[in-house]
Task: structure prediction
Amino acid sequence: MTRLDNLVPATLRLPGYVLGLPQTAGALTMVPIHGPGRPGIVPPRSGLKLKRVVGYGDVELHNGADTGVAIVPLHIGYIQDGAQNHALCSAALLAAGQTRRFTDACCVQAAQGGYLEGRDQWFFVLPWELRARALELRGHEGYSKLWPDISAVNRRYGLPQRGHLEQILTRKRAVLTQFRSRLELMPGQLGALFFVGDRFAGLEVAPDPRFFAEMWMPLVCFAYGVAAWHAEPDRADAEPFEATDLDTLRTALERARADREREVLSWLPDTTDLRAVEEERYLDLRLHTVTGTALAGQVVSEQDRIVYASVFAAN
Result:
């Protein structure tokens, strides 16, 4: 697990985590992470709701749970009927029953504001290509601040050059959601490493498997699936194993899996300059922003042990 420790500041720890076997779908590779859970954290889909769009770049989120703090995932965004689509620039901590207003949200589509009902909304995580810029813009008000970057992403993908993210998230949703079925969420999984091609894309760790299961589709399909879809390689026929009996085949498969694990782990960045700055706290939980030459993101720690992480390649 030393390689995982290189993805977070030295002052914070990722103890007791175990990596599973890599899975690959097209250009997207996912390595499951298992480890000790931290119970009592409210999961994002069943407990956290976008209560109101106050206006452009101004939204309210609500923790509807009777008990337990909610960790608002980094760069979560909402698509809904009859209101503007928005994404947040930062993670956050919300107490049970708390409603919190975020005036530095990014509007990702101009529409009409209003109150919402839970059935009218679904959430995503900003695509990897937009995350570093969105993190830089936290605390800066201005609903259109991410539109130039969204326009650039749309142009690269051969879409109309507009600051409307729904051109990817909604119109390409059928293609992107295939990653959810092509990659398998493992029992007890509470995190993952993501790679696009042979490049490290992100580390995602949740407090427990239920939390991660609710983040699975937004992460696989949107946060990392968009870049993987764009980089989708031409399909090639796999080379057959040279085996004449079952034992030889098993040995060849085990060797191939071990080689694949070593190859994927060699793609992890070797970073030593990561810094963590505390942004907010609730009881023993601390939200930190992580920055470095190659990585950026946010983590939530409890007594220096990380219980949530979203750290991605920044360039």
Observations:
- The CA atoms of residues 176 and 225 lie 6 Å apart.
- Residues 110-119 have pLDDT under 50 and may be disordered.
- Residues 2-232+266-313 form one domain.
- The longest strand covers residues 305-313.
